[in-house]
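Repro:
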Amino acid sequence: MRVRAYAPSHITGFFEICEHLDQRHMGSRGCGFTLQAGVTTEVTVEEGEGISVIINEANVEAPTTRSVVRRLASEYSVEVLSKIDVPIGCGFGASGAGALSTALALSDALSLNLSYNSAAEVAHVAEIENKTGLGDVIAQTHGGMIIRREPGSPGIGKVDKIPVRDVEINHVVLGEISTKDVLGDKRAKRQINLAGKIAIKELLKRPTIQNFMLLSKRFAMDTCLMSDVGVEIVEAVESCGGMASMAMLGEVIFAIGGYEALKEFGSVRTYKIGHYGARLL
């Protein structure tokens, strides 16, 4: 049995880590947006055993996706083929999108009769278990510019949306940041939570994309997560009349405008904000 599903990528501008003993209730408050580019997954389920995960034609470990397969299809042989259209390990929520698209596809392939939120909950818990993300999955179920007002998996966490058009997002990749390493650093977590709490409070006073960009930049600076090169790029974009910040968590500078300025620092790619959540294909 073969089934395909899609989940959008997701960029977070700022966040606050919200711990909880129940992984369904753990997550983050914050804000970000999904992109039209994302992850398309095809699962093949057969009698037998074993898990194979192939991402962009390469056999990989993909622990978050494997956790989803073990939870939903432990008694079968499962092959997961994912095509990821965004950089991996760079703050685009690729692990969450891969896990979410896999969960939706497996639920359909095996006739598990899981509701949308129940399938997404499996992906959210897998992210928490593997320390690959906190709030990507719930945003990826909705699509658009998502304010995560309360933490938790889809059906538990509470979100709102900032109405936006198909805004073009330019970005340049400087490198990768390990989400697992940052989430395991107590000092970094304190800085993130202090700055994140302030940012979400200020955004709710004026929920616009412009305010989001300003608060995202302030968050990246206050938490010292942005490198010196990142600061230089943001300043270059602003000098051209654009707005820029850093994707959380990845060494990627994303911007509205400032395309020519970004070109001075590397290869620039452009995506549009997407308005639809994960779905079967």
